[in-house]
Amino acid sequence: MIVRKVIKYLPALLFGILLAGMSLIAFDFAASYMLGFLLSNTDMHSNSSEFLWLLIHDVGLSLLLAAGVYFSYRKILPQFPNDIFAVLLMQAPLAVISLYLLSPSFDFSSLYSSVSSVLGVTSAVAVLLVYWMSKVFGKDSKVSV
Question: What DSSP string runs through 23-86?
């Protein structure tokens, strides 16, 4: 009985591993042109406004990948659960990777450290944010906007 309940959540964990791999590959490709963008500015310092573009880019990419994987899971596997536990299992591999690799410092003394902290936290909860937005603004929501 317990094995059956665990098995029905296994695809969510597999989609989470897929999301973590896709994120690593996407940020690897994005790093080359973002590094070129940041190095093109000669008077760069820790409070440069270019870090805001980096924040918008990286948070947008993270949320876009999370939304793509989450909605693919819902569309491809509608017979499997779509609840908070499935979303947490889907989020877990990306959270471990983003908190391990990015390790947010929660130091908001400069724009650079603020961006790195916000990006780490946002990547660690991206699927949860997408799940929340789909519940609040989706077809099955009770809230009319």
Answer: HHHHHHHHHHHHHHHHHT-TT--TT-THHHHHHHHHHHHHHHHHHHHHHHHHHH-TTS--SHHH
CB distance 22 to 65 below 8 Å: yes
Render pLDDT for 60-102 as a digit per residue (tens, 0 to 9).
Answer: 999 999 999 999 999 999 999 999 999 999 999 999 998 888 7
pTM: 0.86
Tokens of 97: 């990777």
How many CB atoms neighbour CB 66 within 10 A?
27
pLDDT digits (tens, 9 = 90+) for 49-62: 888 888 899 999 99
Which tokens in the block code for residue 72? 């693919």
Structure tokens at 77: 């596997």
Q: Can you tell me the distance from the alpha carbon of 143 to that of 87, in angstroms, rounded to the nearest whole number?
A: 21
* DSSP summary character for residue 38: H
